[in-house]
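Quick one: examine this chain and its backbone structure tokens and tell me how the chain folds. Here goes:
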Amino acid sequence: MFKTEDNHDGKKEQVLYLVFGGELEDVTKRTIHNPDEIDVVGIFSHYSSAYDAWKKKSQQTVDNALMRYFVIDISNFHQHDMQRK
């Protein structure tokens, strides 16, 4: 079951977090060297679960200084209109 939160309109919205990682081009930037090799860990309905997954993957790759994992709140993503011309 996914978590929901009240938005400012009083409606319930689903809260989702994406955990993913990849090897960076440079440790001072967030540009992933090869986007085709992004490691998608998963989508989580609670931040604590996403954090735990992020921490586990980050610790597994601690020896690679260029490898980074991220937790992104995707609750407010925009659905693209597939029928646009």
Observations:
- The chain has one helix and five strands.
- The mean pLDDT is 86.
